[in-house]
Every structure is written in C-alpha cells, then in structure tokens.
Amino acid sequence: MKIAIVYATNSGGTQLAAQIVAETFAKHNLTAEIKEVQGSMPADLKNYDLVILASPSWDYEGLEGEPHPDYRPFMEKFKGEDFSGRKFAVFGLGDSSYTYFCGAVQHLEDFVKSLKGELVTQSLRIDGFYLDQQKSSQQLTDWTESLVTHLNG
Ligand SMILES: Cc1cc2nc3c(=O)[nH]c(=O)nc-3n(C[C@H](O)[C@H](O)[C@H](O)COP(=O)(O)O)c2cc1C
C-alpha cells in the first residue's frame, strides 16, 4: 500500500507529527512518504492508496481557524479533480484557546468531500502539540494504529 502524508507547518509541529505517523506506519511495515503541500500535484497523489492531509489552524485574510496558507493554492489546483473511491484521512494541530479549535480539519474534510474522496477514519485534532509532546505523540500513534487496523480490516 502506498501512503502519502501531505503537510504544511509554521513552527514545525505538523512536520514532527507527520514523522510520528510515518514511524508508526513503519512499525507495521508500511512506508509513508512525507510531502510538503507546496508542490504536491493531483496527478502525483493519484498514485497513492491513502493520502493523509495535515495542517495547523491559522489566521488567513482575517478569518480564524483556517488551514495553513500553502493549502490555498493546493486546493485551487485540485478543483474539478475526481478522487472517487480513493482513501483519505485528516489530522490537525491547534490550540483550544482559539474560537475555532482545529478549524482547518473541517476545511480539509470538506475538501476531501469535494473531490469525492473517502474519509476512512475520524479526523484527529491535537491540542497544544508542544505543551505535552509525549501526550501528543501518543495520540498520533494511537490514531495511526487504529488507521492500520481499519485498513487491514
Ligand atoms: C497567529 C496564530 C493563529 C492561530 N489560530 C488558530 C486557530 O484558529 N485555531 C486553532 O485551533 N489553533 C490556532 N493556532 C494554534 C496553532 O495551530 C498551533 O500552535 C499549532 O500547533 C501550530 O502548528 P505548527 O507547529 O505545525 O505550525 C494559531 C496560532 C497562531 C500563532
């Protein structure tokens, strides 16, 4: 199974989180390629059986709880693409002191739906990644483990 983890980050947290997810897949002999959202193209992502989208939540043009700005051109490129029957999963980093905690996750889920992709598991929302890295890592590991179980089922 080919897996891609597409991410964007401002302070490195989402990149670290992507690495934790990839390491967990590796323990199950599954290889996940980590890709920056910038430069990721529809034709390329169609080569993967599972695409995981990851983003922090951020302000964007006066709106709160938005995906990282690099997701804007990415989403534009994908307009009109058909990913019917293709598997996706989403995770986000955020901070529950903001009004729209992990708001980016909803945007990414809507994006997957617009492509007719299939969300294979409940999305993961990490609160304060750097505040308790051990807890955050555990949440990411548990989420990936359950994803693997689901994929094998
Ligand atoms: C300017 C700014 C705006 C943010 N807006 C939100 C938000 O609307 N919702 C949320 O849950 N977190 C918000 N956050 C928190 C970040 O998403 C969180 O710190 C995340 O871990 C950053 O991930 P990164 O290290 O990958 O950049 C914001 C942080 C900053 C600095």
Automatic annotation (TrEMBL):
GO terms for molecular function: electron transfer activity; FMN binding. Residues 3-148 form the Flavodoxin-like domain. SUPFAM superfamilies: Flavoproteins. InterPro entries: Flavodoxin, Flavodoxin/NO_synth, Flavodoxin_CS, Flavoprotein-like_sf. Keywords: Electron transport, Flavoprotein, FMN, Transport. Its cofactor is FMN. CDD domains: PTS_IIB. Coiled coil: none annotated. Belongs to the flavodoxin family. This is Flavodoxin.
